[in-house]
Structure formats: C-alpha cells, structure tokens
Design goal:
This protein has 421 residues and is mainly α. The chain has helices at 8-11, 29-34, 39-56, 64-73, 75-89, 97-115, 119-143, 148-167, 178-184, 192-219, 227-249, 264-282, 284-294, 296-301, 306-332, 343-353, 366-384, 389-417, and strands spanning 172-174, 334-336. It is built from 18 helices and two strands. It has a two-stranded antiparallel sheet with strand order 1-2. Helix 5 packs across helix 17 (366-384). It is globular, with a radius of gyration of 23 Å.
Length: 421
C-alpha cells in the first residue's frame, strides 16, 4: 500500500476539512492466510498426512531411514517443480519438463559414457541442452505467440523421440562414472560439518534478513508483520530445518554405529530453492516475473520487456528440468529410454499444492518443498501400506483437484474484494 501524506502547510486552507488517518488498516486473518502466511494450510496438510501414516504404519513412516529415503525420493519432483513454478508465475504451462529433463540426462550420459568427455563438461552439456530446448519453447511462445500448451506438448513429443534416437534402442544407459554417480548415488552424503553447519548458517542469515526487512518497512511506514508473526515465522523455519537435519544425521548407516547424514542431492535441491528465492524476491528480474504474471499488459506499459522475460523463464525452466534429470540419473545409476509418465503431473502438482497459482503472479519457490513432500509422503506412506498404483494415483489426483479448486476460489474471492496480490 502506497500512501501519499501531505502536511497542513502543503494542503493549505483545505487541510481543515481533510482528516489524515494515523493508522494503517490491518489485514484480517483470512487475508493473512491468503497472503504471506499462505504456506500454513499446506504445512498443516503435511502434518496431518504424517500423523495418519505414522499411526497406520505403526511408526514405520517416521523411522529415520524412511525419512531419509523420502527426502531423496522427492528431489526430482521438487527440482522439476521449481522450473514449473517459474512458468506458472507467468500464467503459462510447460508440459515438456519431464521429457526435456530426461533428454538432458541422456545428453550427459552419452557425452560421459560413449564419447568420454570429462564428467563436469558432460553435466554442463546436459544442462545447456535443456536450456536450448527451453529457449526454443520460449521463442515460439513469446515471439511467435503460439499457446504454451501446444508448444510444450509438441516439445514433449519431440524430445521423447529424440531421446529414443540418442539411446540407439538401448533401454537403459548405465552410468559408470564415479563423479556423476557420487552426486546422488546410494552413498552420496555430505560430511557432518557441512551437513549441519551450512543449513544452520543459512537459517541464521534468513532470520537476519527477515528482521532487517521488518525494521526497514517499519521505518518507511509500510505495512509489516507484527513482532509475534515475525518470531513465529523464524521459529517455524528453525524447527523445520533443524528437525530435518537432526533426523537425517541420525539415520543409521550400513555399518553398526555409523550414520548417513544429509544426502548431497537433497542439499542441491534446497540450494536451488535458496538461489531462486533470492532471484525472485531480491532482484528486478524476479519482480518483473511476478509483474508479467500478474498483468502482462500493465507490465508492458510499465516498460518491462515482456518477451525477454518469457523467453528467459522458459529457458530457465528447461535448464532446471535437465538438472533434475541428471540428479535422477545419478541416483538411479543410469538413464532410462522411457520418460516417466507421472513425473510431469507430479511436478505440476507439487507446485500447485504448494500454493503457486495457475493464473500467474502468485506463489513462492519455498512452497515447492512442501508440495513435493506432500506428494512424496502420499506415495511413500501408501507403499508402506502395500497399496497399488491405482490407489496412489486416485489419491494424488484427488489432492491435486482439491488444491486447484482452492486456488481458483481464493483468486475469485480476491477479485471480488479487490485484495488480489
């Protein structure tokens, strides 16, 4: 809210008839839940799922080893979900993330295993191949103005075929390179000093950033959170981060008396979240993404290069998807010739369930972690209960339609009340 406050001297004689309010109207609880604290309903949903499976599996769901597996299982969904989030913030859709991600992993595998390129260059080649695919999508969508649904659907089909061509009728391209396997393989864990120390340092910086932002908004006369809300946000973040680290650091290893620690691929996932959060919230480019997604025509009239923003976002989405495919290949010790039919829907579901609006302009990358955890927890818990794919898909579909319905109803309510963000 921007307020222009003039003094009586500036207003002149008319000041006697003008009453300047001495307060800023506070948001209601419902408005707050729809805004900055929109992650709370998602977090409560995750807590409810956790409690349910903890009871129905006789505590097996909360065993440290299972929690460690759960975190590693959601990495590919979460990373692809990050790319999807960037596109959804524009009010667009990308149906090619799963195919492009697997294609990027295939490029890496071919470069490393068949051509003998050094692993670092092979990984960079895979990510650049994904970025090139995204740039082509962005050109058709932003420059030629073809609907993103059609472009990315065609892209998905094309890269699925190109993947089969590159695999040369090989069902699985086995990854032997120890550097690549060491990124997310079965024994890829951070040293305890880094696994515990780095997230704690980031948490402290996050808390300091919130406090500095709060003080700056107060000095500028802008609406800010109350002290209680600020403390609650920091405490919730601390409990989640330190609790997750405590569980991972106490996951028993294959040898008695040893512990596994924080998986490297999980650390990479949360590092990507942190980087994208900084880009979206602390840079002009990030603010322009929200502006274009909120109202493209208004953004164009404000001088924002809408075409550039859209092309870059689709490029980033596919590059991130390629990174997710590489992490999956490292964990699975190979690249499959078939694109996972569920991965695309799970990535979109993770973003939407986490609170990213399908209509553009609203959402946070941090919500992807919660959305991915909900999807992963449902699959993991149902697996522990020996439920088949039919039950898992029906439940995941029900959760997704519920999340989309809530998003649509919230957007409709905000439009009527004029409080849309």
């Amino acid at each position: 809210m921007r307020e222009i406050i003039q003094t009586r001297d500036e207003l002149g004689p008319a000041a006697s008839s003008v009453e300047i309010p001495g307060y800023i109207e506070r948001e209601t609880l419902l408005q707050r839940l729809r805004g900055d604290l929109g992650f709370i309903p998602v977090l409560l949903t995750l807590v409810a799922i956790t409690i349910y499976f903890a009871i129905t599996t006789n505590g097996l769901f909360l065993v440290p080893g299972n929690i460690s597996n759960l975190f590693q299982q959601i990495v590919t969904i979460g990373v692809d979900g990050l790319g999807v989030t960037l596109v959804l913030l524009l009010g667009e859709i990308d149906l090619s993330v799963a195919a492009v991600g697997t294609f990027g992993a295939c490029v890496m595998g071919v470069m490393a295993e068949r051509i003998g390129v050094p692993p670092v260059l092979a990984i960079i080649s895979g990510v650049l191949a994904g970025a090139a695919a995204g740039a082509i999508n962005g050109f058709f969508i932003a420059v030629l103005r073809i609907p993103s649904f059609i472009v990315t659907l065609a892209s998905s089909i094309f890269y699925t075929g190109l993947l089969l061509f590159l695999m040369n009728h090989q069902e699985t391209l086995i990854i032997h390179n120890q550097f690549i396997v060491g990124i997310a393989g079965p024994s890829s864990f951070l040293p305890d000093v880094i696994g515990v120390g780095l997230p704690t340092i980031v948490l402290i910086l996050y808390a300091l950033g919130l406090v500095i932002e709060h003080l700056a908004r107060r000095r500028g006369g802008l609406r800010s959170k109350s002290i209680g809300q600020l403390i609650a946000q920091i405490v919730v973040a601390a409990v989640i981060v330190e609790g997750a680290i405590a569980v991972l650091e106490n996951t028993p290893g294959p040898v008695a008396g040893t512990y596994l620690g924080v998986p490297i691929n999980v650390a990479i996932f949360f590092s990507l979240i942190m980087i994208l959060w900084l880009v979206l919230t602390k840079t002009t480019f990030g603010r322009h993404i929200y502006a274009v997604g909120g109202n493209m025509e208004a953004a164009r009239r404000a001088g924002i290069n809408v075409v550039f923003i859209r092309v870059v976002v689709f490029t980033l989405c596919s590059a991130i998807a390629a990174a997710g495919g590489i992490l999956a290949a490292s964990r699975n010790l190979g690249v499959a010739s078939q694109v996972s039919p569920a991965l695309l829907l799970q990535a979109i579901a993770a973003a939407v369930i986490g609170g990213v609006s399908l209509f553009g302009g609203r959402g946070s990358v941090w919500s992807i972690a919660l959305g991915a955890l909900i999807i992963g927890s449902l699959e993991n818990g149902l697996d522990l209960r020996s439920q088949g794919s039919d039950i898992k898909q029906m439940i995941e579909g029900g959760v997704l339609i519920f999340a989309v319905t809530v998003d649509a109803l919230i957007r409709r309510t905000q439009a009527r009340s004029g409080s849309g963000r």
